[in-house]
From TrEMBL:
This is tRNA-dihydrouridine(16) synthase. Catalyzes the synthesis of 5,6-dihydrouridine (D), a modified base found in the D-loop of most tRNAs, via the reduction of the C5-C6 double bond in target uridines. Specifically modifies U16 in tRNAs. Its EC number is 1.3.1.-. GO terms for molecular function: flavin adenine dinucleotide binding; FMN binding; tRNA binding; tRNA dihydrouridine synthase activity. The keyword NADP applies. Belongs to the dus family. It comes from Billgrantia tianxiuensis. Residues 1-297 form the DUS-like FMN-binding domain.
Length: 320
């Protein structure tokens, strides 16, 4: 996920068992073959057998519309050691769509096919080519055609984010639509969109009929969501809700990793950005976010987050 799931975040999220694979933020392909440093920036794991430190494989994602340019860059990525190429046909960003990338290709399934087929031809069967789509651009009428186009082009797996581009990130995700697509494909289909809890996970699986799901924002909101699902599948037991101290530890570890290369000012905003994701689904994280959102000094921020209890906002204990 662009701007939020870099190699450090992938590392932290995969330290507990739960994820089978992860994917990089998209590498934007326009027309030129990009230099190796761009691929290494997006996917430092290329230097480490393309897995996170705990051994979870990382697919390298490309976003673009020109089949020849995608093919040249997929070939470049393969030479650098990429072990899977994922193609992004889901990005709803206006800037990306205006430049004819991401979800804009869903308006014409032939273009999805051309992109996947070109990349498949470039990397051969040496490494898998996978694709990620939404249900369409402004309607769902081409959902199945786009999915089949990806399969016919040579994709070995398809992730479906169960909303159209125009639906953005607005709930609900239409998981039952993924089921309609899945029934017509022979490659594995992975369900994605709005999986925030164990209950959502089960509902998404049931309605889509998919064996596997992809977690996005839910994994940032609760870094234990994937382990929670894995644990439940293995034992039938539900893990307790993730306590604040565990979240604070993830944020502190994240800051320590980011500080190796980034100035504290940037790390401070990155920590707040992750906390902002956590607060979407957790009352304590929401309270903590309110308490620290104006802190601009990293040490102060981390010290405050590490406090066992956040003091109530100033004045709330004043006698009436
Ligand atoms: C900030 C942000 C950045 C994203 N960047 C990417 C990306 O680079 N590649 C991609 O395939 N999807 C990207 N997505 C989409 C997510 O992977 C996912 O499909 C979407 O958020 C729905 O799943 P969720 O409800 O579990 O988050 C991004 C989403 C967000 C919110």
């Amino acid at each position: 996920m662009e701007g939020v799931i870099d190699a450090h975040t992938r590392d932290l999220l995969t330290r507990q068992p739960g994820f089978d694979w992860t994917v990089t933020e998209f590498v934007r392909v326009v027309d030129a073959r990009l230099p190796p440093k761009v691929f290494l920036r997006h996917c430092p794991e290329l230097d480490r057998r393309v897995t996170t430190p705990s051994g979870v494989p990382v697919a390298l994602q490309l976003l673009g519309s020109d089949p020849a340019a995608l093919a040249a860059n997929a070939e470049q990525a393969r030479k650098l050691g990429a072990s899977a190429i994922d193609l992004n046909f889901g990005c709803p960003a206006k800037l990306v769509n205006r430049h004819d990338g991401g979800a804009s290709l869903l308006r014409d399934p032939r273009r999805v096919h051309a992109a996947v087929a070109a990349v498949h031809a470039a990397v051969g069967d040496e490494i898998p080519v996978t694709a990620k789509i939404r249900l369409g651009f402004s309607h769902r009428r081409l959902a199945l055609d786009c999915a089949k186009a990806a399969e016919d082009g040579g994709a070995t797996q398809l992730v479906v984010h169960a909303r159209t581009r125009d639906e953005g990130y607005r709930p609900p995700a239409h998981w039952e639509w993924i089921g309609r697509i899945r029934r017509h494909l022979s490659i594995p289909v992975v369900a994605n969109g709005d999986i925030w809890s164990l209950e959502d996970y089960w509902k998404a699986r049931t309605l889509s009929g998919c064996r596997d799901v992809m977690l996005g924002r839910g994994a940032l909101a609760d870094p234990w969501l994937a382990p929670r699902i894995r644990h439940w599948l293995a034992t039938g037991e539900q893990l307790a809700a993730t306590p604040w101290q565990a979240r604070a530890k993830v944020l502190a570890d994240f800051a320590a990793l980011q500080r190796i290369t980034l100035p504290d000012r940037i790390v401070t905003s990155l920590v707040k950005q992750w906390l902002n994701h956590m607060r979407q689904r957790d009352a304590e994280a929401a309270q903590r976010f309110q308490a620290v959102k104006r802190i601009n000094e990293l040490e102060t921020l981390l010290a405050r987050l590490a406090q066992p209890h956040e003091a109530p906002a100033h004045g709330t204990l004043e006698p009436a």
